[in-house]
Write a structure and sequence with these properties.
heterodimer; A: Rossmann fold; 6-stranded mixed sheet; 10 helices; about 35% helix; elongated; B: 10 helices
């Protein structure tokens, strides 16, 4: 796998003193879909804005396809298409004019056939002569995507592409992203929706307080997702976990009233039936039981919470 | 520094199309304004005015009238051109595009200056319906017009970047440039003023610009043509220096 984007030691402190990014290192591989997750104000948009040349970094370097994004900005920026979070459009312009304009701005020769196909792919062709102000929010979002793709970029940034978008458009968007990936376009998206990251991404990064706290293959995260906990509410409290139950690595909770067993729900032998048999053999009675699945969201919230606690301690 | 010619062309045509949408108002406004000035200053008052040196008063006000409109139009067009993308947020696309600052400047200022020169030409043509104006140095006159349009568009570009509201966008053209131009000898010769006021007026930079432009028409001005040219060059250099600094620091363009 070859790296198409290399971010190293990237930091940004705004004039207000707010530190939006604190030393981010990240390598994006060619052709992958990378999802950047994080709460509001975590630094997602700042990160994207720096790579795209809209915000000047305080520290660090960015290399796009081997081109330094400050020194060799023309080559670097030519490779990138950006769909920002906000719907920034020229209200009075026609759809086709604004998309053609974007292609020219990026120095590409005009290609009406390409623009036509692009607008058709995004279901905008019928609206090509409509003024942007006449379009719905979802259609405006499509126009933004068409503008970003008008110069045939190698890397596409989608900043919260499905925020405030209806279900149908979200599905369309996901299909479009998959189609782009098949054509070899690298896609980096930020999102609030864990579902989106699960559905789309090859890799997931979690950012919080300007720090990248986790970067992992989605499949590895799905394994974590597969972890379940079984909680048994005991009839009589225990002082300690009995020695013969050691193989399950149980944890005693709720002042001895609860036994907690964590297991991999996708494994062939979860160990649950044998545990329950052993308990009944031992005469340990329980009143109730329930299982809980840890979701990507739990992992995410846990990670974000952890960094906040660390910061408070520091 | 200039490589992305297609990008320059895209912005230039975009801006010209924006002017095109308001083509008739853009065209009619200078025609009507010029007509009004000639009705009031040319016919009603002008007939009672004596010639300025050897130039009839009606012809005398033509260069001043052109400059007055071109100054305000240049500033408002150029400032609006760069302020709008900032205001609507579409500036993100300019900043993320492979355009150098110089290319952006050429595109925006070029388009605004083109419009100003067209408006100046319309005023000049309209004036011919009312008075007989002879131009002593036509080439210099055209060069001066273009130079003034470019310089004031650069100034407007700076205002557009500086402004953070529509009010700020209007404040400099209306409260500074318009009065300075009006008092800068657009409609009178400095010789008509009492000595004390003449001295005060010489602190008004616009005096040198209008005087220079008038010189290209009649071969005479309030100050020498060299002084005027010097003032134009100074103003141009000043605007370029500020813009250079703006792009270097990303002032109010990048965070």
């Amino acid at each position: 796998m070859t790296a198409v984007l290399d971010i190293s030691g990237l930091g940004k402190t705004y004039k207000s003193g707010h530190q939006a990014l604190a030393g981010v290192d990240l390598t994006i591989n060619k052709g992958e879909i990378f999802a950047l997750l994080g709460p509001n104000g975590a630094g997602k948009t700042t990160l994207i804005s720096i790579v795209c040349g809209i915000v000047t970094p305080s520290a660090g370097t960015v290399t796009v396809g081997g081109h330094d994004h400050a020194r060799d900005y023309r080559a670097a920026r030519s490779m990138i298409g950006l769909v920002p979070q906000e719907l920034h459009t020229d209200a009075f312009e026609k759809v086709i004019t604004t998309v053609t304009f974007s292609r020219g701005l990026f120095g590409k020769p005009s290609d009406p056939a390409f623009i036509e196909q692009l607008l058709k792919d995004l279901s905008l062709w019928d609206k090509r002569n409509a003024k942007i102000m006449e379009l719905s929010g979802g259609m405006k979002r499509r126009v933004m995507i068409a503008k970003a793709l008008s110069h045939e970029p190698d890397i596409l940034f989608l900043d919260e592409p499905t925020a405030g978008v209806d279900v149908e458009l979200r599905r369309d968007m996901w299909n479009m992203v998959r189609g782009l990936r098949e054509r070899g376009v690298t896609i980096i998206l930020t999102t609030h929706y864990i579902e989106e990251a699960e559905e789309m991404a090859d890799r997931v990064g979690v950012i919080s307080k300007g720090r990248l706290i986790l970067v992992e293959e989605k499949d590895a995260l799905i394994k974590k997702l597969g972890r379940k906990t079984l909680t048994l509410n005991l009839a009589d409290p225990l002082d300690a976990v009995p020695a013969e139950l050691a193989q399950w690595n149980l944890v005693l909770a709720g002042e001895g009233h609860e036994l907690v067993y964590e297991f991999d729900s996708q494994a062939e032998a979860t160990g649950v039936p044998s545990l329950l048999r052993r308990l009944s053999d031992r005469g340990i009675q329980f009143k109730d039981l329930h299982t809980e699945q840890s979701s990507l969201e739990d992992i995410f919230v846990g990670l974000v919470h952890e960094t906040k606690t660390e910061e408070r301690a520091a | 520094m200039i490589k992305n010619l297609r990008g320059i062309r895209a912005i230039y045509l975009f801006e010209m199309a924006r002017f095109g949408r308001t083509f008739w108002t853009s065209l009619m406004l200078p025609v009507i304004t010029t007509t009004l000035y000639f009705v009031v200053f040319g016919s009603a008052i002008g007939s009672r005015m004596s010639d300025v040196s050897t130039v009839p008063y009606g012809a005398f006000i033509v260069p001043g009238l052109m400059m007055l409109t071109m100054f305000t139009e240049s500033i408002s067009n150029a400032s609006f051109g760069i302020y709008m993308p900032k205001w609507t947020g579409t500036i993100y696309e300019m900043l993320s595009s492979p355009m150098s600052p110089l290319e952006l400047l050429i595109a925006y200022v070029g388009a605004a200056a083109t419009k100003s020169v067209i408006i100046g030409a319309i005023i000049f043509a309209t004036a011919h319906f009312f008075v007989d104006v002879q131009v002593a140095h036509p080439l210099l006159m055209v060069a001066f017009m273009i130079l003034m349009a470019v310089t004031f568009c650069l100034f407007g570009f700076i205002i557009g970047i500086w402004a953070q509201s529509f009010e700020q966008l209007q404040v400099i053209p209306l409260l500074v440039v318009y009065p300075l131009t009006f008092l800068g000898g657009a409609f009178y010769s400095l010789d008509m003023l009492p000595a004390a006021w003449r001295a005060v007026t010489l602190f008004n930079p616009v005096v040198y610009l209008i005087s220079g432009f008038r010189w290209t028409f009649f071969g005479q001005g309030d100050v020498g043509i060299e002084v005027s040219m010097g003032a134009v060059a100074l103003f141009l250099a000043l605007c370029l220096a500020v813009i250079f600094w703006v792009f270097r620091t990303g002032y109010r363009l990048k965070n």
